[in-house]
Write a structure and sequence with these properties.
The chain contains 5 helices and no strands. Helix 2 (10-31) packs parallel to helix 4 (55-74), helix 3 packs antiparallel against helix 4 and helix 4 (55-74) runs antiparallel to helix 5 (84-100). With 108 residues, the protein is an all-alpha fold. The chain is globular. The mean pLDDT is 92.
Length: 108
Amino acid sequence: MPESDLLQLDGVRVGAGGAALFLTTAAGVVVGLPVVGFTVVLVAVTGACATAVHRPGGLLLGVAGWAFCTGFGVNELGELTFTQADLLRLSAYLGCALLLAGDRCPAQ
């Protein structure tokens, strides 16, 4: 399979989106973004990455973006919490991903 064909696979695009979220998270931690800024930046990156995948992959990116934000922007050392604010952020990530991801499931 030629390399250009690999970019057509949703799994490859989801992996690239996850890498973008990881790098954005690392940059946000280094810069010391406040929680609101961290959330806005990661929601934007999540949405941008979701445009390249179908809905299942977009939802996966939404959960990953939320986990990075909660684990490193809100808490420290990757600790995930499920407070009301955390769940509100989760709904923002998932809503953004659903809104911007493709409208069909990938072919099997």
